[in-house]
Design goal:
This protein has one domain. About 65% of the residues lie in helices and about 5% in strands. Strands 1-3 form a two-stranded antiparallel sheet. Strands 2-6 form a two-stranded antiparallel ribbon. It has a two-stranded antiparallel ribbon with strand order 4-5. Helix 12 runs antiparallel to helix 13 and helix 13 packs across helix 16. The N and C termini lie far apart (about 70 Å). It is found in: Membrane. InterPro entries: Transmembrane_161A/B. This is Transmembrane protein 161A.
């Protein structure tokens, strides 16, 4: 039975069962926030504010006085009081009340289990023939990418429901800007941006026509054009650009604060700068004159020297993206602590102002920073997960290799569909002599194999190479656009 079902499917079902049962007790997402390395700031009580202001705590009016005098005036204190917030490590009970905590916990844990299944599948394919089975790890990676987009959509819906409306305008502006940039990128020739979209689309359309004729549609032709497909792809890019607008703006703010927070640690500052510029490196890796042409045929005087083969360059490019994503994930704690320090930073700024402020406003401002911790964490982690898992899907479906071995991407496979001989269910007798009908499992497996063969005949690795290379590059480009605008906004516009 194990041979018929497949080892990968058994491991996937086991991982899904473990994730469902272990998440309430052992969660990586919960450990990431509640391992004692992050500190939140407690809001001061009214008694503490009164003591710092040098006044007595006003007694609470009775219910009769409130009915007679109406609402009493809120307690106010001078803004220049010597207020220092108290630190406290984030506990599990503190994290459970945060906004979007359940969505954050489920997504991070799902990404961790998806990565584990992917690593197991990669090791499993080193033993068996990859052509005989479907790479289930790639399916988990695709599901992770879709879940990331779904969570970003939920966060963007939170901004659209805001009463102020400024967040809605920012998302729409970045969406239209992304649409314009995507349409410009899609017309760039393959000599400059080597996504492989043109060969991929040609392979897709040719295989669709051949497949339709094999199914009996002799007069049928593909009712779409490359322009239509590219317009649809540009619309998807605009949607992704709108989703990544606020994550990029938030990354710029946390990056500046994290660099300032670690001013006495130059090595951490260097890692923070490398992490911030990682999407720029990813963009350059797909610019052919800068990356492949230079490393493939490096000019040495009047001659050129081949530093690495084409397959080796593809492998180095994949490894570079994975390493940069791991570096950014490793620096999550510094960025989150820099965000939590906004409470004390706001208090320090308040001390420089004149006038009075309501005590409830101080408490709300300090508490609000902590309440949005999981949202900020999602905005930091999700773009990295999108880039990482898109790269893993590109490696699997594009028939690349981690070792740099030469592999043909399978331009146009044989489209002759395998004919499966129908196997009639047989009659069997049990110990009592009663005949019964048993479904033939081999016939079911054969039909599934035929379906996967038909899908592979249309969606070739050449098509997946172009599609996921472009999507990986585009996610990095959106991060660069939004984060650089965020740097300009926080460094210049906020100070004026």
């Amino acid at each position: 039975m194990l041979a018929l079902i497949g080892v990968q499917l058994v491991v996937s079902l086991l991982a899904a069962s473990i994730m469902q049962r272990m998440t309430p007790h052992c969660s990586f997402a919960r450990w990431l926030l509640c391992n004692g390395s992050l500190f939140r700031f407690k809001h001061p009580s009214e008694g503490e504010l009164c003591a710092l202001a040098g006044k007595q705590m006003p007694s609470k009016p009775s219910r009769r006085d409130r009915r007679q005098n109406g609402d009493s005036k809120p307690l106010t204190v001078p803004k220049d009081i010597d207020l220092n917030l108290e630190k406290a490590p984030i506990g599990v009970l503190d994290a459970l009340v945060l906004r979007f905590f359940l969505e954050y916990q489920w997504l991070i844990d799902f990404a961790v289990y998806a990565m584990g299944i992917y690593l197991f599948t990669e090791g499993y394919f080193c033993v068996v023939d990859p052509a005989m089975e479907v790479h289930i790890g790639a399916i988990w990676c695709v599901l992770t990418v879709l879940c990331c987009l779904k969570t970003l959509h939920s966060l963007m819906g939170h901004y659209f429901r805001s009463d102020e409306g400024g967040e809605r305008s920012v998302c729409l502006a970045f969406g239209f800007l992304s649409l314009l940039v995507a349409m410009l990128v899609l017309v760039v020739r393959e000599d400059y941006l080597e996504f492989g979209l043109e060969p991929g689309f040609n392979s897709l359309f040719d295989n669709l026509e051949v497949f339709a004729k094999q199914q009996g549609f002799a007069e049928w032709s593909v009712p779409v054009t490359k322009l239509t497909v590219k317009l649809g792809l540009a619309a998807i890019c605009a949607f992704i650009g709108a989703l990544l607008a606020f994550p990029g703006l938030r990354l710029a703010q946390t990056h500046l604060d994290a660099v300032q927070m670690n001013s006495d640690r130059p090595f951490i500052q260097i890692l923070l700068h490398i992490s911030f510029l990682a999407p720029v490196v990813v963009i350059v890796l797909w610019i052919k004159p800068i990356a492949r042409d230079f490393l493939g045929n490096a000019p040495m005087g009047k001659t050129s020297v081949t530093l690495m083969s084409s397959a080796m360059f593809d492998s180095v490019r994949l490894w570079t993206v994975v390493v940069l994503c791991c570096l950014r994930l490793a620096l999550t704690r510094y960025h989150m602590q820099a965000y939590l320090n906004l409470s004390q930073k706001w208090v320090d700024q308040m001390k420089k102002e004149a006038g009075r402020i309501a005590a409830i406003d101080i408490q709300r401002k300090v508490t609000r920073v902590f309440c949005y911790l999981t949202i900020v964490t999602l905005q930091y982690v999700i773009p990295v997960l999108l880039l990482l898992f898109s790269t893993l899907v590109l490696k699997v479906l594009g028939d690349f290799s981690w070792s740099g071995a030469e592999q043909a991407p399978g331009v146009t496979p044989a489209l002759v569909m395998p004919t499966v001989t129908p196997v009639l269910p047989g009659l069997e007798e049990d110990e009592d002599g009663v005949e019964y009908m048993e479904e033939d499992i081999q016939a079911t497996v054969a039909r599934l194999t035929e379906g996967f063969s038909a899908l592979r005949s249309v969606l070739t690795p050449l098509f997946f190479r172009g599609l996921f290379a472009f999507l990986t590059w585009w996610v990095a480009a959106c991060q660069v656009i939004s984060s650089l605008f965020g740097i300009y906004f926080h460094q210049y516009l906020m100070q004026n």
